[in-house]
Amino acid sequence: MNTKRMVGIVAVAIAMLLVTTSVAPVMAQDVSAVVDEIDKNMAELIDATEIIHTQTDAILGVDGIPEEVAAKAETVHLSSHALEHIGVYMENNIAKLDTYKAEPEKNKAKMLVTVGKIEALRKLHQDTIDAGDFVTTMELPVTGKAPHELVHVLVEDPDVKASTEAKSAADDIHNALHAFDDASKAMRLNLEDLEYTLAEPPVIVDISAVVEGIDKDMAELIDATEIIHMQTDAILGVEGIPDEVAAKAETVHLSSHALEHIGVYMENNIAKLDTYKAEPEKNTAKILVTVGKIEALRKLHQDTIDAGDFVTTMELPVTGKAPHELVHVLVEDPDVKASPEAKSAADAIHNALHAFDDASKAMRLNLEDLEYTIAAAAPAAAAPAAASTPTPTPPGFEAIFAIAGILAVAYLVLRRTR
Predict the structure, then answer these.
(1) Domain for residue 29, yes or no?
(2) What's the pTM value of the predicted model, to 2 decimals?
(3) Residue 403 maps to a domain
(4) What's the CATH number where 128 sits?
(5) How many domains does the chain have?
(6) How confident is the chain (418 residues) per 10-residue block, as mean pLDDT?
């Protein structure tokens, strides 16, 4: 055997050894690459939202702009406020993916739930600009038309075209809007890719009871929201109610509109759970993703009434205070107490508010229970496959010794053939 041939054999042997011992990190690399793309998509959404926000403001600042043009620009502008608000929740969940991606095998269930959270928020985010539901629900200056559609109207408006400043701003908004749509769609595809990569092994577990609990929680949230909506309207209908009381009631009332809007998305995802529960073994990953979707929406839903961010972001009549806090102020207000009709309505809102909080917290616990049940069953389901397919390990000391052995044998063969 000549020296060149022996060197070739040794090189091939070493290459094969390195290939067969370096398969394990592939999943981590794949997951990390997809998460990096999701980070990039989010950065693009933030940039596009900022342009829409600043350039609609620029149109509103143009002297002599007609009221009907200003109304369209203001509607798109306030919609960009909602995009910024939802975007904060998206960023927080994407940050969790950035943490989990280092150990995807260990964090599979958590990552699938987080994928669901981001996707639910992404859809709400995109629908805010691409559909007319949000602007209509929140009674913005122009209703019944998607902000996306209003931007196209602004770009072609003669008064906008006649102003160099307004035309430049409208063109920037239009370009940003298409960049926004591209980034949102790319994020959806990346989230789908991540879900596919992380798919859990099928589990056999009964989840019907906990899903029924979530159904019940949702029904209670709908009932409470309806009471808040109707009874704030009742206060607004009381003759002689002071403006400052009306402003508080109107803020809570419009917040209940947002609750109804988010609630539709929650119901749609809970309906999916009702389908999946019949065959959890076929829908393991989908259940975890759907749990994430519902939880992300539930948190946004609860924060809408329990925190002051939404009312401030949307520039409602009273800002800086949570609707929950405003209800307590209304219950104690002397003018409300002086009117039997207003007092009865305020008390009903107060009771509904606490029922709402109880139902929202119960749903959170039920969702956590469902996530835990699926996640706990997954390792047992994966065990048989793991036993029959040993997991390759990255090269360590064993690989070094093996390479050394190959080289030693090669050396002895070379000595004998000389």
Answers:
(1) yes
(2) 0.85
(3) no
(4) 1.20.120
(5) 2
(6) 50 44 57 96 99 98 97 98 98 97 93 98 98 98 98 98 98 98 98 91 86 98 99 97 98 98 98 94 94 99 98 97 98 97 98 98 98 81 48 47 49 49
